[in-house]
Design brief:
two-stranded antiparallel sheet; 13-stranded antiparallel sheet; 227 residues
Amino acid sequence: MKLRLAVAASALAISFAMAGASNAATYLLNVDNCSGANGCGSASYGTVNVSGEGSGTLTVDIDLNSNVIFQEAGNPNGHIDVWFNTSTSSVDVEGLVSPFLTNGTQAAGTHNPNGASFGTFDYVVSRLGDGNPSTAAGGLHSLTFTVAATPGFTFDPSTVGANNIYFVVDVAGFSANGQTLVNTGKVGATLVPGGIPEPATWAMMLMGFGGLGAVLRTQRRRQALAA
């Protein structure tokens, strides 16, 4: 019985250890650097969720609020919409679909989001676009892609003042009802403290709890029969 209890406890400890190493990080698009007194029309513009940390391939999910879209104005042949840094000298960006353009290997460069005080970034995601739609419903609100590099690599911030900016997104902000374009410009994403265990980690933790609970139930039944 003691051996079973030790094994179950060990499995639970391992699952907690893996929960710390396999997290989905969340970044909040909350640093407004849009031009104009009203910013881009919102106090918070959406989130950037990164899963797969600790591996060699990270999945990036950018979800903008319903009244915020990816900027479509600018150079129609290649307008940069996303900037980010990593701890490596090159990355392989995949999973982008039209109108986004930059699948493939990128070497670290120096990219400054024009008109924004967010410093410089190594990598970018560009898109085609010849003008913003008249309403928010006509634009894109989400983007998913993968970034691959040396296993264990991380997204690194650009530190500007009190803010550590991990991602910059060029957006168009509309009124709350999405009918009127308020402003355009860049917004920065800061890290939300803590992490969210990925589904596989949750499964391992539940198995550990289940195993420990089964051993304790068996122990109680034996004690009751012996009484």
